[in-house]
Amino acid sequence: MADELVHYDVVGGTATITLDSPHNRNALSAQLRRELSDSLAEAAADDAVRVIVLTHTGPVFCAGMDLKEARGAGAGDQGVNEFPRILEQLWTSPKPVVARLAGPARAGGIGMVAACDIAVAVPEATFAFSEVRIGVVPAIISLTVLPRLNPRAAHELFLTGDTFDARRAVEIGLLNSATADLDAEVARFVKSLAAGGPKALAATKALLSRPRPATPSDGFEEMLALSAKFFAGEEGQEGILAFAQKRKPNWVPQD
User: Which one-letter DSSP state was computed for residue 9?
Assistant: First the structure.
């Protein structure tokens, strides 16, 4: 059996999923896709996991689809057919997902970054929607990337395939921050996310992805029911009591 290309580790309520295929720049090979999907499913199903961190070994976060596997394959056999499941798992995960980039991302790799809730990179990381440069279309990743990006920037970068840096990635909405102190920034986000109630975080993630009603009035009835449910629920009542008692709620990991 081939060595695993994705490592899964849980410490203190944080599941770290590490892409470890540096020989091909962590390209989305069939084995890596399978192992990544399995790891995401495991993290989502584990009640002990509060936050997921998606990271990598080697100098590149992810170069996109494995072009060696794609060469010569028919439309029905392309690995890209399996990629939507991974993006869906990241986007809809009930646990917040933080992308940690110590290096560049390209094409499908950027699609995964966009599907995560929080994304942090080192300043020297670079990005490119390189699909058009090889005669293909950034179709699947558009579903996670376009909700994040400034529309003008999206048109420019999707159509030109030009490389851009981490500073611009922050400006256009792809990244939350670019910092030389990557691990400290990731730890800061993980701590903040773990302070939220697990059920409240899952419901809030779903809320963020909902289509917006035409007017606030169109959504008040449904949102009132959701709000009242959580105020009266076990988690909400624990949070209210903890606030009154000036202590941390019981879901916050111990320091």
Answer: E
